[in-house]
């Protein structure tokens, strides 16, 4: 069990369900006085004598006044989410009624919970490690199948298990090297350097793999920004509508209709793509408003994770397209080439016309032709075949930075071994490596760090 700060003996109460009117609302209490507090408001049954993991129906009353008819769920510690005695009160979903119940619990000695305090208590009581606790917040915030799977994998301990196994083996070597220091006069070697090299290689590969997954993890968690750019009237707004299956953008035959940026979110195979339709890019314009739109378009293009370059296959030459591609390559942009209005010419003729340029997706946004092919290409461009359902993927910036520190300390350990530096210095580098591995799972934490991490949670979780 982790050390607890002042206030952790309090019994806390909060609404566990979302704010607003609903069929039911659930109020959660956790702490030593949970059962006694609710028992004083629940005359139907003596909850102090009830077994754990049971449900009880009856009226909640305060000073003889009926507050609500409720269902009480009783969980006795340590077999509860927080490891403490937990009571959940399921009442009718009136915000006023639920607030009255919470106030009654406060009147009986509970205090209002802080954000993330239930999960923080679960961590402090050893029910979850820190990486699992943070995955709880990710799961609550997940809005795609991919982000749900990633968070659930981490809650189940997939990430933690990989790190804990490596950390334990490093601890063993660290202990042996420290033991050598006690016998420094006798020039003995307890830690097999060959085995240590092998372990370092294994830890390095695993850590590098996890750290490398952060870019993908960030995509799964936060989505991908996609700037749709092209000359005026290339069909950008029509494409946006085709992808979203709705008329979100203004569509007309007048060149340069879109004067600002429009953002929409598209879920493709569990990944969120934030589509940004930008004002048409022209080299020269006398329209001041359109000039402002162009500046925004260029800025969005620089900020975007992926650029869809949409061009009218009937209006552009291969040489012009190649010049644009060269510009994208110079700016190191990740882009997809999309030839629109392909319904006006046979596809074979188009492929022949643009045969010098690979990777073009020919579509007709107006007729919604081949837009599914474009969606598949977007997913492939982001994932690049690097993810499976069982992969451990890093989505947390704190974990990523800790892994980078682990990698640096592993390099220092290896350099030390190569240069035959004294055992006490190698032991110091191993301790630094262990420290950062422990920071991820919470085996090494500070109170300020914990307060910061859990303050990002919603109240009631």
From TrEMBL:
Cofactors demanded by this protein: K(+)
Residues the record lists as binding (6S)-5-formyl-5,6,7,8-tetrahydrofolate: 28, 88, 127, 461
Entry binding sites for K(+): 233, 252, 254, 257
Binding, GTP: 233-238, 252-258, 277-280, 340-343
Record-stated family: Belongs to the TRAFAC class TrmE-Era-EngA-EngB-Septin-like GTPase superfamily. TrmE GTPase family.
Occurrences of domain TrmE-type G (ranges): 223-383
Organism expressing this protein natively: Niastella koreensis (strain DSM 17620 / KACC 11465 / NBRC 106392 / GR20-10)
Protein name in the entry: tRNA modification GTPase MnmE
Entry keyword set: Cytoplasm, GTP-binding, Hydrolase, Magnesium, Metal-binding, Nucleotide-binding, Potassium, tRNA processing
Known role: Exhibits a very high intrinsic GTPase hydrolysis rate. Involved in the addition of a carboxymethylaminomethyl (cmnm) group at the wobble position (U34) of certain tRNAs, forming tRNA-cmnm(5)s(2)U34.
UniProt-annotated location(s): Cytoplasm
Subunit organization: Homodimer. Heterotetramer of two MnmE and two MnmG subunits.
Gene Ontology cellular component list: cytosol
UniProt entry tagged with the keyword Metal-binding: yes
Pfam families from the UniProt entry: MMR_HSR1 (PF01926), MnmE_helical (PF12631), TrmE_N (PF10396)
Molecular function via GO: GTP binding; GTPase activity; identical protein binding; metal ion binding
Predominant location: cytoplasm
Enzyme class, spelled out: hydrolase
InterPro entries: G_TrmE, GTP-bd, GTP-bd_TrmE_N, GTPase_MnmE, MnmE_dom2, MnmE_helical, P-loop_NTPase, Small_GTP-bd
Cofactor remark from the record: Binds 1 potassium ion per subunit.
Annotated residues for binding of Mg(2+): 237, 258
GO biological process, one term: tRNA wobble uridine modification
Enzyme Commission designation: 3.6.-.-
